[in-house]
């Protein structure tokens, strides 16, 4: 976590037309020495910088747990409501059918839909000595503006050193809920690969999952 920039007490500070205080030259508020450097002595924000630059005691534990997960695949988009959870749940089922050991995490803490999609909504989550124990799913796994948004996501992945394995064009066409299997399977927490394995949705998602499976097989664990 980067320390919050604070007002520095150096004589080099200057207020702009809106009354905002500019930082002194050499203020280390965005570096590891925030609150410890000589220029920080007497600064009113020194204590806050010190508190935010201390080592996160939970991070080492998180790193150990995450190293146990050999491959991490992120399903993301530039906006909400475009089908990330549907794609992620279907991909987990497809990868599980390819004999991969799959875990699925929903990072939407305000309105998670993965429990319903994976049919584990009523199960009790157990907090064990090493953290939460994953629930076992019966499915075996777990125009220019749009392009500009996608470029931002690809750029994010590159900055985080994440391999971009492809782009899913989801919801590009509408299929009637009365005659298409995917909508009902998602609503009822069932696997489209079990109920309707020959459907266009199952075929397309399985193709994506196979491509991902082939990619990660040759990657070094992260």
UniProtKB/TrEMBL annotation:
Keywords: 4Fe-4S, ATP-binding, Iron, Iron-sulfur, Metal-binding, Nucleotide-binding. It comes from the Eukaryota. GO terms for biological process: iron-sulfur cluster assembly. GO terms for molecular function: 4 iron, 4 sulfur cluster binding; ATP binding; ATP-dependent FeS chaperone activity; metal ion binding. Pfam families: ParA. Transmembrane segments: none annotated. GO terms for cellular component: cytosol. PANTHER family: NUCLEOTIDE BINDING PROTEIN 1-LIKE PROTEIN, NUCLEOTIDE-BINDING PROTEIN NBP35 YEAST -RELATED. This is Cytosolic Fe-S cluster assembly factor NBP35.
